[in-house]
Amino acid sequence: QLGVNRSTVILAFGELRSMGIIESRPGSGTHVSKYKWGAVPKHTPNWKRYAEGGSFLPNLPFLRRIREALQQNPDLIDFASGELSADLSPLGEITELMGAQPSPSYLGYDHPQGYMPLRQAVASYLDRYRGVQTTESSVLITSGSQQSLYLITQCLLSPGDAVAIEDPSYHYSLPMFQSAGLRIFGLPADEGGIRPEEIRSLVKKHRIKMIFVNPNFQNPTGALLPDDRRGKLLEIASELGLPIVEDDPYSLTDYDGLDRPSLKSMDRVGSVLYIGSLSKIAASGLRVGWMVAPHSIVERLADARQQMDFGLSVIPQQVAARFLESPYFEPHLERLRMQLRLKRDLLIDALHQALPKLIRFHVPQGGIHLWCQLVPEVNDAKLLEEAIKKGVVFVPGSVYGSDSGYVRFTFGRAKAENIGTGIAKFAEALRALIR
Ligand code: PMP
Questions:
Q1: Quick check: 227 and 216 in contact, CB under 8 A?
Q2: CA of 294: how far to CAs of 137, 139, 307, 402, in Å?
Q3: Which atom of ligand 1 approaches the CA of 82 most closely?
Q4: ipTM for the whole predicted complex goes beyond 0.90
Q5: Residue of the CA atom closest to atom 7 of ligand 1
Q6: How far apart are CA 113 and CA 90, in angstroms?
Q7: How far is the CA of 81 from the centre of ligand 1 (A)?
Q8: Per-residue pLDDT tens for 322-369?
Q9: What pLDDT, on the 0 to 100 scale, is given for residue 266?
């Protein structure tokens, strides 16, 4: 009888292996290595294991494939990237404002909530365009809506918490929710977005802690939540004491320039955490966004933010503050809306021409996304690969939580003159699969 148990032997082998004294190779067993006694063994860290560790899940395979295809072939016609083309961004205005900027008086760590003149500019922007009355003390500057969402999921929720999101939704494309250990539940959405009454049964079943909505020209469907549903959503949330995250990057792209009321502006009890961004109305590369929340929440998030990165660089915040307050802002918005409407029309005309009867969609009144249902049944992955071969990319609908057979075409990024060609290429890819 050996007085050693099995796990001790396994541990001892592991130790000898990590010291380089023994080596194991699949198929040839374990041997004493050519270890020089007294010499210090050299080991490269097991980077693969580290890379697979940590709490972040990798991005979705379709999104990684699209990014890789765009890197390999910059000439692909891009209906996938959710951003504006260079000609729609106010590059000239921003360059001029950068040049006219007085040099900063101090370049140290700034206030944890962000650069004061930008917080003031955001407060007056929100009053003017979103009907939200707030002060700079309730504004937190972030590096975009993505970071606002990250702060909310990491700091205000705990692993295991259940949250409700629209189905389909941009948020399905974010492993961020799963990385935070959240359980996500979809609220089915039609062309008018979610039906708020459905929140009640979801809450009963899953003890929902927070609701995430993108009520204006939603990503990916382009849906605009009607006023009565907005009222109902707020009513139910306040009845249940549930916070709503209003993710609002697209509202100012309304082609008719209509000021639809933000949920935050209708919020009488303080249920709404509002997040906004310059990404879809100016430039995604500026990485400037904001959040408006009760002061205790802003303080908590600003504190967490300090631990993460000590805040966004002051330079883009200065540029953003100047741009929001400049006489360029309003004419830029008007031009942007006009150009986006034009691109939407080009896309729709091209789809009618190239794929009559094979594709269905609702025409969005703002934003940069067109959500389409394909009439023939095709496999998402095959369609994407075929489209890449033909020279065009789009995002398969399953990325946003829907069944296969849907696609999202984003028309912010592609150049107007390429939209027709891009859709002709997509049509070739689709027809190749249904032949
Ligand atoms: N929310 C929605 C609904 C979006 O569409 C996007 C960008 N695709 C974001 C948040 C993140 O945008 P950003 O961080 O650039 O502000």
A1: no
A2: 9, 9, 20, 34
A3: 8
A4: yes
A5: 82
A6: 26
A7: 11
A8: 999 999 999 999 999 999 999 999 999 999 999 998 999 999 999 999
A9: 97
